[in-house]
Design goal:
This protein is of the alpha+beta class and 358 residues long. Helix content is 25%, strand content 19%. It is built from 7 helices and 14 strands. 37% of the residues are buried. Bound molecules: 5,6-dihydrouridine-5'-monophosphate and zinc ion. 5,6-dihydrouridine-5'-monophosphate is lined by residues 58, 65-66, 82-84, 113, 158, 165-167, 173.
Length: 358
């Protein structure tokens, strides 16, 4: 077979496929592609002149939202019902299907928006650790409150216009649903199978391995690990997970919430420093199902957050998941080990604050 020479295998030189045991997917790693010519270059960040307060921005304190409600003059976090919800609590059911190829099921739920801070010109990495801790407490509270009724509460943040975020004001969304969505459904099955086969939760075993191997580790503190997963798809994708076995956000102890706020600030500062830009991403939390599904045995679950950032080479050159990714499977250019090494090397003071001092 052509190309199957006697050279020893090197992940950074030789393409190969890697398995994601959490989501039962493969990724094609072809790091040698990073050598191909490219036009993107490291440009200085475009100054974003976002006003701190804009009375016409519906997410700001005191502003009027689409439904006519006036926001309170909030001083920390602010949680409200999304005025354009994708899920509502009482939609009629679609009724029985008349053919196996045309299946529908009822879907109920609620959608909320959580503002992180009263200012529009701030982002999580520029917020203080106590301010981030307040966001974490609000996440835990809403996950618990909506989890009392719904089997899945998805907390997610779309950051940056590149990720389809329509509003610069720092915020995330919370969608609670009466059904278990696809990704958590696969994670549930794979974690359950792993525990029954190996006697230990998948992500607990995985975190311990990465803490020992260190080559994909980006950050660690007494309670938390941040790593570029062995099977990462996005160039600088990371996984944030507790060292201890924790099922859900609402189970985190006060000390673990403080150390989570600290490690999030470190990670997101590194992200911004990578290309000296406000780093775009989609992130979200996954924990054990709740509601009616929360009564079942959930010991196979381990709480974690995924960060999926699209940038590849610079603030202006992103990875597109098109062509081969849409039709075959995910492919990445630099190895997860190379991505982790770059993130490790980055300073933990924010470039904006360095610029202000200079
Ligand atoms: P995104 O930019 O991440 O989509 O978040 C903005 C959300 O805020 C979006 O889901 C909601 C939108 O529906 N929103 C309101 O609920 N009320 C408004 O008056 C404007 C925006
Ligand atoms: Zn997950």
């Amino acid at each position: 077979m052509a190309g199957a020479g006697s050279e020893p295998f090197q992940a950074s030189e030789h393409q190969h496929i890697r398995y994601n045991p959490l989501q039962d997917e493969w990724v094609l790693v072809s790091a040698h592609r990073m050598r191909r010519p490219w036009q993107g270059q490291l440009e200085p960040p475009v100054p974003e002149n976002i006003p701190r307060h804009d009375p016409s921005n519906p997410l700001c304190p005191g502003a009027t939202r689409a439904n006519g409600e006036v926001n309170p003059l909030y001083e920390s976090t602010f949680l409200f019902d999304n005025d354009f919800p994708a899920l509502q609590p009482d939609a009629p059911s679609p009724g029985p299907s008349d053919h196996p190829l045309f299946r529908a099921e009822p879907a109920r739920g609620v959608c909320k928006v959580l503002c992180f801070h009263p200012w529009s010109d701030i982002t999580l990495p520029l917020m203080s650790v106590p301010e981030i801790r307040t966001v974490i407490d609000t996440w835990a509270k809403v996950a618990g409150d909506l989890g009392a009724e719904y089997p899945w509460v998805q907390i997610f943040e779309n950051k940056g216009a590149m990720m389809g975020c329509s509003n610069p004001h720092p915020h995330c969304q919370v969608w609670a649903s009466s059904f278990l969505p696809d990704v958590p459904r696969r994670e549930d099955r794979n974690q359950r199978e792993y525990l029954s086969r190996h006697g230990e939760p998948l992500l607990l075993a995985y975190g311990r391995q990465e803490a020992q191997r260190k080559e994909r580790l980006v950050l660690a503190n007494e309670d938390w690990l941040v790593l570029v997963p062995y099977w990462a798809v996005w160039p600088f994708q990371t996984l944030l997970l507790p060292r201890r076995h924790v099922l859900r956000l609402q189970d985190l102890q006060p000390g673990e919430r403080d150390s989570l706020a600290a490690i999030m600030k470190q990670l997101l500062t590194k992200y911004d420093n990578l290309f000296e830009t406000s780093f775009p991403y989609s992130m979200g939390w996954h924990g054990a199902p709740t509601g009616s599904l929360g009564e079942a045995e959930a010991g196979h679950w381990q709480l974690h957050a995924h960060y999926y950032p699209p940038l590849l080479r610079s603030a202006t050159v992103r990875k597109f998941m098109v062509g081969y990714e849409m039709l075959a499977q995910a492919q990445r250019d630099l190895t997860p080990e190379q991505a982790a090494e770059r993130l490790r090397q980055l300073p933990e003071d924010h470039f904006r604050q360095r610029q202000e001092k200079a």
